Amino acid sequence: MDLIDIGANLGHESFAPDLAAVLSRARAAGVVQMVVTGASREGSRRALEIARAHPGFLFATAGVHPHHAVEYTEEADAELRALHAAPEIVAVGECGLDYHRDFSPRPAQRRAFERQLQLAADIGKPLFLHQRDAHEDFLAILKNFDGRLGPAVVHCFTGSDAQMFECLDAGYYIGITGWLCDERRGLHLREMVRHIPADRLLIETDAPYLLPRTVRPQPSHRRNEPMFLRHIVEELARDRGEPVEVTAAASTAAARAFFRLPAAEAAAAP
């Protein structure tokens, strides 16, 4: 199976000592391409640096997560626009709203989100979106940009079936992580994933977060890695009632179209 991890936080400090080994294990598990998440000004610069070091295999996003919304100044906007000139940057984000933790004031979150939606509209790149406990405001802000945005994925979807159908009705893609494998919080997703159209279903690890709880044996360090994307797609296929090869092929095709990635074979060429 050829898999694409659409969201891996490879700039996280936990990967600094052994990133080469992490990437090697991912390749061995069938991960042919990855998108490195940029979630702050510094994190977006680091995501681009990592992607540039692995051309054709790694790509990146650049954006400001709602946790860091207070850093979205005019200077930040200019810096993001400059970063997006790089071909390795394939989406705007991670951006959106997070009313669960409220690490940034909600007005600041909304302003930063709106600025990044404007950025995406201006440059024509897809959106890598975050939403937690803010569904109504999230959709309302996006609706203000109707007709001006390209494709958008609601990354690490954890909401209700009604919220998922609203996102699908709006034309958005759905990103599924190892949250699916969490018997405490993710059981509702087991049924819901059957209803996601194959051409709008994307898969991701969100590494180093969200280690799938059904992985056996569980690693002692509890760090999630892109190599566990294979486990997630196996669980996802079972819940969708289809062969794992079908789920893998569809999600890979959807990811490649969404981010406009080159074919993995071309990416691997010298």
Characteristic terms for this protein:
eight-stranded parallel β-sheet; 10 helices; about 270 residues; alpha/beta; 8 strands
How would you sum up this structure in a few lines?
The chain has 270 residues and is α/β, with parallel strands linked by helices.
CATH topology: TIM Barrel
The average pLDDT value, as a whole number, equals 96
| CATH C-level category | Alpha Beta
Number of helices: 10
Please describe what this structure looks like.
The chain has 270 residues and is of the alpha/beta class. It has one domain (3-268): TIM Barrel. It has ten helices and eight strands. It has an eight-stranded parallel sheet. Helix 7 links the parallel strand 7 (173-176) and strand 8. Helix 2 (41-52) packs parallel to helix 3 (74-83) and helix 8 (229-240) crosses helix 9 (244-259). The longest helix is centred in the middle third of the chain and has 18 residues, at 106-123. The model has no long low-confidence stretch (mean pLDDT 96).
